[in-house]
Amino acid sequence: MxxxxxxxxxxxxxGTTICSKRCYTTFKYNxxxxxxxxxxxxILNNEETLLIRDKDDLVSFxxxxxxxxxxxxxLLLKPxxxxxxxxxxxxxxxxxxxxxxxGGNTGLVGGSVPYDDEIILSMSLMNKINxxxxxxxxxxxxxxxxxxxxxxxxxxxxxxxxxxxGAKGSCQLGGNISTNAGGxxxxxxxxxxxxxxGLEAVLANGTVLNLNSTLRKDNTGYDLKQLFIGSEGTLxxxxxxxxxxxxxxxxxxxxxxxxxxxxxxxKLLIQAKTKLGDILSAFEFMDRGCIDLVxxxxxxxxxxxxxxxxxxxxxxxxxxxxxxxxxxxxxxEYIMEQGLTVDGTVATDSKNQSTIWKxxxxxxxxxxxxxxVYKYDLSLPIDQxxxxxxxxxxxxxxxxxxxxxxxxxxxxxxxxxxxxNQKYSKEMINLIEPFVYEYTSxxxxxxxxxxxxxxxxxxxxxxxxxxxxxxxMKLLKNSMDPNHILNPNKVLPF
Amino acid sequence: xxxxxxxxxxxVVDYAVKIRVKGDKSGVETNGVKMSMNPxxxxxxxxxxxxxxxxxxxxxxxxxxxxxxxxxTIRGSIAMGADKGIHVDGGTTDLQPLAVAKLLxxxxxxxxxxxxILGKQAIDDDSNQTGQMLAGLLNWPQATFASxxxxxxxxxxxxxxxxxIDGGLETLSMKLPAIITCDLRxxxxxxxxxxxxxxxxxAELQVLTPQELGVDTNTxxxxxxxxxxxxxxxxxxxxxxxxxxxxxxxxxxx
Lengths: 494, 254
What we know:
The complex is a heterodimer.
Chain A: H1 2-10, H2 34-43, E1 51-52, H3 55-62, E2 76-77, H4 82-95, E3 99-102, E4 119-122, E5 129-133, E6 138-142, H5 147-154, H6 173-178, H7 186-189, H8 192-195, E7 196-202, E8 208-211, H9 225-228, E9 237-244, E10 251-259, H10 262-276, E11 280-287, H11 288-297, E12 310-318, H12 321-337, E13 343-346, H13 350-361, H14 363-368, E14 371-379, H15 387-396, E15 401-407, E16 412-420, H16 426-432, H17 435-442, H18 467-480
Parallel strand pairs in A: 2-4, 3-4
Antiparallel strand pairs in A: 1-2, 5-6, 6-9, 7-8, 7-9, 10-12, 10-13, 11-12, 11-15, 14-16, 15-16
Helix pairs in contact in A: 10-12
Chain B: E1 4-8, E2 11-13, E3 35-37, H1 39-53, E4 59-66, H2 70-80, E5 84-89, H3 97-111, E6 115-119, H4 130-138, E7 142-150, E8 158-165, E9 168-175, E10 178-182, H5 194-202, E11 206-208, H6 241-250
Parallel strand pairs in B: 1-4, 1-6, 4-5, 5-11, 6-10, 7-10
Antiparallel strand pairs in B: 2-3, 7-8, 8-9
Family (chain A): Belongs to the FAD-binding oxidoreductase/transferase type 4 family.
Protein name (chain A): Putative actin interacting protein
Domain FAD-binding PCMH-type (chain A): 69-248
């Protein structure tokens, strides 16, 4: 048992559950056989390329983006349409074969890869954009559409996707919706729970649930689509979605502001909301540690000579350049008068805008270059927001480099603990967990603001949800997927 | 000892904008489109400010020509560190490089700078002519596509410029006053600090007109039409060597 664990650690993979892989849940599954393969081939119109069985070809699908989790799937299926998804699920449900629905495989909590030998159901071929209404801004598309692809489609039409994240070049809509993706624009456009108007999902027994609607308002019975938004593929497979998209702002301003204390950051946030109001589109923060990391690994220069403790990246988006500039100037004058910022700069052209964004966007990559990184995505009350970073620094001392950054406008902290030049270690995890979760729970925060639960946090769900709520979730799961074939061993601690 | 640097800058369509040609083919659509300082001019401003910081230059004057919106661009250079800004209000007249060069000559006669440093070309017309024409009109030496500029602080009456040319790098020495045009690798422009951005908004700019400078901005150049390049058609897949040869013959390539 311990040998198994140490082997995992030395290969830089982590198994977060202690039981051996074959007994990953209390549910019994069957093993894939040749008859199953024949059946899948027939469902997929005998198109051989829609099945992947070669071990080497499956490697990238079996592992997550951070190479933290590794599954052992023997088969990947690529359906072309909803009917095929329905037939596959119906068959798997009868045969008790487990599946993992997979989109762009960009998740950070091990939710998109098999735990063991589940079949991988790839949505990549279902990538058509079906319809767009230029009056309402509602777009309907298949779940395999890549976020960047949708953005490129909407841009010339004058619209934009209401959310944005670093993984946009690979992540797919189905995955974004199953994980209720957040991102840098949530501050402005709200969450997917509000922006998804309808979807089509296939249930575990193959039933196609048509909840597809392009209506902005529809109060007819229980709002079932909300069940699929954020349930990480455990209640159904999303095949189509209708999203409301906002007009693409034509006037964008980006400012980088330096603060020397977190209390100034808080005051700045209040001023940004009141003075910039409807044009505020992003309010991100990063601490000194993050900036130093970025400067070490990226070809960027530090814009401020004073080496401030915090940077705030502020973005405004609107439709009237003059009006927005006036609002921004008023805001900047005020914060300078009040001494809320020690220095700052405003991007003068789009090259400068993207350079300033690079400071924020390359933090993750820069962290990755140093060694093992332990990532925690938490929602905390704004007063405790940065306290946790300082507490962890004290707790870990010279063993690790603790940094904090994230969507401070939404009170969402990305706590990152980096151990330069070292591999993942169980020791380090034990120093961090469950302390981080206990701290979060004590302050009524969330142990996963936007990344989701996946495999990583399913045993910690109780830190943020009461036992009666977890019970109700289990009830829903048991009734919608009694054989537990959909993404087993994820999200709920069965 | 005074050492003045004149930096002409141009307001152009931002480099990241996907440009569209106007329906009447008269030009590129600029209405409601994001405009910025020409990137090469930004490099020129940066170089001038660095000369000031090195104690060589004592004053940096930025000048831009065109409609009132140019003033924003001039303020941008003041925010970076330029001392004074001049706006030559040409209204909606399309100013061609020769007209710009003539206007600059008049300004040079007025301001008497030791050095005029420009971007090598504007990203909207890619003319790459203004600096050279100005040198011709003034009969001053010129060094274009500069990737390095060196002035000896102890004897600031000549400048050594390294230029990027097809064969590699060429280093020239010129007596001042002279014209330099900048290339991409000369420097990395600084971020303008917030206090300076705020100050620049209140800065007073000197506004002149082509008439006051006594320049006729009419040139003999008329744009007849502006069109998009032909859309790229898809390729064709063939499945045998014979088919390849037939296709090549069909398109008169062999």
